[in-house]
Amino acid sequence: MSASSTGSGSALCRFAHYFVVCGIDTETGLEPDELAALYEWLEADRQGRDPETATKGENFDQSPLKRTFKSKVLAHYPENVECNPFDQDAVNMLCLPKGLSFRTQKDNRDPQFHSFLITKEDGTRTYGFVFTFYEEVTSPQICAAMQTLHQMHHAEHASSPTNPCPTSSSSSSSSTSSSSSSMDSLASSLDEAETPSSSSSQVSGAGSCGACSGSGGYDASRDTLYVSKALCLIAPMPFMHACKRFLEQLHRAVTSPQPPPLPLESYIHNVLYEVPLPPPGRSLKFHAIYQPIVCQRPGPRELPLADFPLGQAFQLLGVENLVQLFTCVLLEMQILLYSQDYQRLMVVAESINTLLFPFQWQHVYVPILPASLLHFLDAPVPYLMGLQSKEDTDRSKLELPQEANLCFVDIDNHCIELPEDFPQFPNKTEFIQELSEVLLHFGVSPEGGATSPTTTTTTTQNSTPGTELKNNVLKELVDDGRNGNIGGRAVDVLELLQGNATLERLQALAKRTGVSVGHLEALSRAHASTGEAGRDGGRMSAADEEELRNAKLTVQLREVFAGRFTAMFADYEAFVIQSAPDLESWLTNREQMHNFDKASFLSDQPEPYLPFLSRFIETQMFATFIDNKIMSQWEEKEPLLRVFDGRIEKARLYNVRAPSLRSSKYQKCTVLKESTQAIEQRLMKIDHTAIHPHLLDMKIGQGKYQQGFFPKLQADVLASGPTNNNRWSNRTATAQRRTDRHKQHSEHLGLDNDLKEKYMQEARSLGKSLRQPKLSDLSPAVIAQTNWKFVEGLLKECRMKTKRMLVAKMGREAVELGHGEASITGLEENTLIASLCDLLERIWSHGLQVKQGKSALWSHLLHYQAREEKVLQQQAESPVSNGSERRRSESGIGLPTLRVSLTQDMRHIQNMSEIKTEVGRARAWIRLSLEKKLLSQHLKQLLSLHPLTKRLYKRYAFLRCEEEKEQFLFHLLSLNAVDYFCFTNVFTTIMIPYRAVIIPIKKLSNAMTTSNPWVCVSGELGDSGIMQIPKNVLEMTFDCQNLGKLTTVQIGHDNSGLLAKWLVDCVMVRNEITGHTYKFPCGRWLGKGVDDGSLERVLIGELVVPASEEDGGRGSRTPPLQRSPSQIRRISITSLSGRGNKPNSAQIQESIGEAVNNIVKHFHKPEKERGNLTILLCGEGGLVGALEQFFHHGFRTARLFQKNVFVWDFIEKAVLYMENADQMGDLAEVPQPVSLNGDTLCRYVNAVNNTPRSIGKDGKFQLLVCLGARDQLLIQWLPLLVECPVITRMYEETALLRDRTTVNSLIGVLQTLHDFPITLETSLTKGIDL
């Protein structure tokens, strides 16, 4: 087999792919770390200095022992593996992320272990496990070079008057630049390769000059020089414990006085070529140098492999912090882990990743970010990254490019900084309680803050099976088992039972009902102890026990997390929309399709879950999960999905009872005990043992053993694997055949695989290609290319988000276009807007020159505001008038025009004392601009100040890419097509200035009145209370707590003075912050003896669409809200003069049906999103207007003495007749119910007549209808009015009210309202005593 293509077939099943050695290349000598040089280049470029000169000079300020030097991959075996090509730069960078570090005999030289991973373009991961130790430098050239560097460093410091002592903080020298750049402070805390020197040497060197004393200096004649060397195994799966133990034994062999039993090549060859991956559900033992190593792999129905110690992550952070971090990851925020220890970064990152089951992180994932890649923290996408801190680096000095959406995790100090506006994980308290119980069970403190993993052994779980077996017979059974004499039949029975799901369920059921299953349990315990006895002579080593304990703790904690998701998404399948006929058409139209019925899913969830779930189901990881579900109908299920679906199925089978309605009651995980059994069984009874290491066909005399030095290995024997077929190559062949079959099957589907991959890349993610920064080539050109990808990704995300927001809002048109259901819940809308705010923050923090404050957008706005105010000040000082005085609007409506001003909107936000933070202010400003339909215009104005943008942003920033910026503003402009109330509905407690104008009909009445007018404005959130209007003033302003959307205005006067009659055309009210203007049409008189004699009226409001918007976007405006009864309708009904407008009987019946239908629809919406019922009752097209038309049909038009006759007159007469008839006993023969109904009608009519309010006859009719609808009496009153003899005098023969069939059908329609609790606004029922 050739070295280059080693084991393409067998590599798939190999435990390890590569063995790598990194360290110093004695031939090239000491080279400064080129990545550090590249970093200097970027910084110089950013600060406007000449990058070339900046990187030429050596940094003599820093002690050579603290500088980073270039490391190299000294050897790697084999040369290449086809399925996992060797990436030399990435491996070198991650094996020694700080480059080479030097030590002397005085420094601490403890070996270190850490892991890393490399994510490839397609999302697959490769794991690396690194053991770093210090090896003595034997090359005289390198020692001499180090001596020279030290002398130069000493000379530099001696000549520098400002810094006589070289041991003074080296960070000060690197952060002398005055700029508070987003990266400068990172550089100062990261560029020195800080030595974790022992405390004693730190103390000794503290008071004296480092170059002169021994502490910081190096003297070749006196000191021994050591340099770091890394041994690394690269493996396809994260078998961390096994790899760590192998590398530890390898290091032990190098440092031991005795040479190892075989040459090191034998062991490395064995682990590379002769140790297979354990098959799923099996364990494997292979032999290292001194002790055997066991690893195991979960079965297909278990949670996937996770070998990083989860308990350690909980110890480092504490349960509370870890759950909060977990929530941030689920919501795809930016996560930055921070620790001195690379392994801690890796443990926390991988732990969080394993807890996401069944979901997977879809974005940038770099658990160890090398210092040269710091510019990646600028990435405007969600990321999960780990950054190494240095000793004594203060978090406050660490300025990060963007913090608005950042979760910062300081692992070493056990603390976490959360983003604002952060929903809690459902049932968080009970969830934390359950996790704490599991941790305490294993002797781990839930508080966290333990700096090193404790090694306490648990008391209950690890007790030997023998102590539990009191019964002598069972003891004998166990003894027999130890001797291998356990009855064959018993073992068969046990294995049969353990593999049978039905019997498992019966056993669980038996336990629940209290039936003893002791024999079976004893059998399984006996069986387990047999396995234990058979291993290592019956005793587990302390390391094995610790590993088992860690594995059990990890799996139990994971089960608790998995159980939460199983409970929360138990019925997710019901909401998956399967719309495509085949895979190809689904992939092609993926972006246009709705895959999940979000609104219905959320409406089915318990209220407390909604803030979290509404945001979670918008994430990329949830979208990918649903995509995998849909694709599983055409191809094999994705493994995580298969396990998850299996669990949901199992939960359904166990819950034999009918599934209860969804509740937020917390259900504990029930499988904790079972989950650890499989792990124990695999460890007790090893399934496979690999070939032992053996002598290879090597040249004799090479690679002589020398204590403390890792030998130069013989490359030819390690370049390729054994040629003979070993025991597991057959499995490889089978796997290969299966892969080929699967490949043929996919091709048979008729979809080119490359095309499919392209679609999936497109469909699934914005920035999935950026999951892993390219570690190999870091030229400025590559960095520019990466930033360009970010710009494209941000633009695409903006397009998707605005489209989603439009589709969700556009209602019926969207449904007709095939976009699924039209309903959008307020919660969902809020989630979409929150995610738009997050996107804008990410765009504004991309490519920042200087970091100021936590919100990049608000910081930019403040710069703009300061400049504008300066300009205004200059204008005010100059005598020339600036002509900015706006004329009053000429439309005849008395509201002065509201000036559109970016800075004015900022001032509104700054005046809101409720908002305390910059991020909060930026979000409030975005919401306000969106509600005012000015977001795109404001941002365009903000970015039009090119000098400011240039000063704040680097060349590659999104905001400096002209074409993309224009497209971005265009996408935001599209949001003006729909109405948002995202500011009004969120900030419900703020004080808002309102302006009200009363517009009289001047031609027909006095513009002024001598009486004292008053007004009361009501909205969905409350009312203003009655406010007196100053005499002869038609305009007033008032401050009031946010009323929400305005619904009604009550207007009236006290009828005093000579000119007490007032003909009001309408009332206009404007919210002075959002600019929303409401018109409340009236068109009626207010005064005694005129019209219907009303002194006050309740007017129903409608939102006015601004004129500019009608002209500019006529085609795109949303339909107006329900309007209040128009003037024409009122006049045609009351004075009956507009004969041309009279509706016919069919139209009247249709309008009643429509009005009732609207009320029914109102109650079918979720409670928080119903809007205003008053409009549906009293507004235009409302129930009152429709019934008024019904009663007016065929009403006799004769005017007696020119006096209008109203429907209320008919009702009063009918009531009078009933009361008289009742007194005369005419109703004695009438059945009891009819008589009772007559009583209630009389009582209600009298109550309306006796109200102290002067609401006029039409107002009284409106009130009666509303009360009848509320108390479900309308259908009882109608027959009474029809039966009343008064009807013949006041109605024509053809009137609808005299047609029995029509009246009966009307009763049937009104009957449907009885299912709903109608509540009336206080503005309607004020003064009614019933």
The quaternary structure here is single chain
How many strand segments? 24
Radius of gyration using CA atoms only: 40 Å
Structural class, by secondary structure, is alpha+beta
Poorly predicted residue ranges: 1-9, 54-58, 162-215, 451-497, 525-538, 656-661, 725-735, 741-752, 762-771, 812-823, 881-892, 1109-1140, ...
Distance between the termini: 98 Å
* Mean pLDDT across every amino acid position: 75
Largest sheet: 6 strands, antiparallel
Strand content: 5-15%
Q: What is the 3D shape?
A: elongated
Give me the number of helical elements: 49
Helix content: 40-55%
GO molecular function: guanyl-nucleotide exchange factor activity; small GTPase binding
Organism: Chanos chanos
Pfam families: dDENN, DENN, PLAT, RUN, uDENN
Keywords: Guanine-nucleotide releasing factor, Membrane, Repeat
Q: How does this structure look, described?
A:
The protein is built from 49 helices and 24 strands. The chain is of the alpha+beta class and 1330 residues long. The longest helix is centred in the middle third of the chain and has 30 residues, at 780-809. The strands form five sheets. Strands 1, 2, 3, 4, 5 and 6 form a six-stranded antiparallel β-sheet that branches. It is found in: Membrane. Residues 53-636 form the UDENN domain. Residues 721-736 have a biased composition (Polar residues).
